[in-house]
Input
Amino acid sequence: MPSPNHKTLLAVFLILICAVSPLKAEQTDEYQEGFLTAYLNRAIEKAMNVAPHGDSEGSEPLQYGRHITKYISAPQFGGYVIGSYNYSSQDNADRNAFECRMVRMYVSGTILRDFKYRIQLELKNPAMRDFTLEWVRFKEFQVKIGQFKRCFTYENPMNPWDVGMGNYSQTAQRMTALIAEDPSGEVAQNGRDLGLQFQGDLFPVGKDKHRLVRYQAAVYNGNGQNKKDNNKQKDWIGNIQVQPVKDLYIGLFGWTGTYTGANGVSARRNRWALASIYEHKDWSFRAEYAHHTGSNVNDPNAPNKADGWYLLAGVPVTPWLKIYGSYDVYRKDATFGSMKSIYGICPNFQLHKNLKFQVQYNYVNDRTADDHNYHELWAQTYVRF
Output
């Protein structure tokens, strides 16, 4: 349990975020059409006689009322599939196989121009991933409700197509319950939860009028995707970001809440992260550090702290080849004796906007495993349909 001073400081931090209150286009889990769904979308637009992202009366003032139904965009459908092959030289590893990583379908659109909806389904093991309704009239203040990615770290909200490496960092996987169990014992939730989020971009500056400050403040059930809350408390997550020059963001993230497991045991979780991201003219850079304190619902003797960090750089070589490299670390008890380090390099072959290939080599040093040092080779195909 954190001391009262720690809890007070974190509460003040989140309140300040709310006080300074979608975001402009960034690398989030946005939806793009594929080569098949493009035909479907154009057919729908033609049938509705509307523009792809608007309505046929775009110059007319909006009139609200339950009998006004003409202000609606054509829905935009899309989908993608990611297939992979994984090999590991680690003793007793079961990684030496082809597999389907994910198959996603999605639809998005706008109603009355000010309201944006999105739905995303997983088809491999059928499940709801996202369902959101956003009020997006003003850049400075927007509201999102539904199920969506937790706004903690830069990497968690990113679409798999944009991560650059063959998988998310250990920090994103563990600290947001994205792919692996988090330090509190919450099983993988695809980084998602149900809740309400406020967000916006403030203070245009410079000749290009880029927004100096970005903020997000959200309240979640704290129990993960497709689940009702199972305790009387909520999780609070917020961040505040500064963009000193265009496309460079430096952010501070905070999270406080309580997770209750299926066994009825509850665990506090308090997290913070400091991060930076830069995406400009096909050059990429990300650096994130995250720290956790709290207990574990499955193990009363588990470490009460954990941390992780990574550095990633992406360098464009040709219009169709971009090479990423990363140094990725996670420490399950925030000590060097529990460190798992991954040194990775991953060429991305983007032959078409709807077709991408990746080949990734990892050298892994895991101080918690019997076989400390081993090699991994991943190969993945991405297709939008």
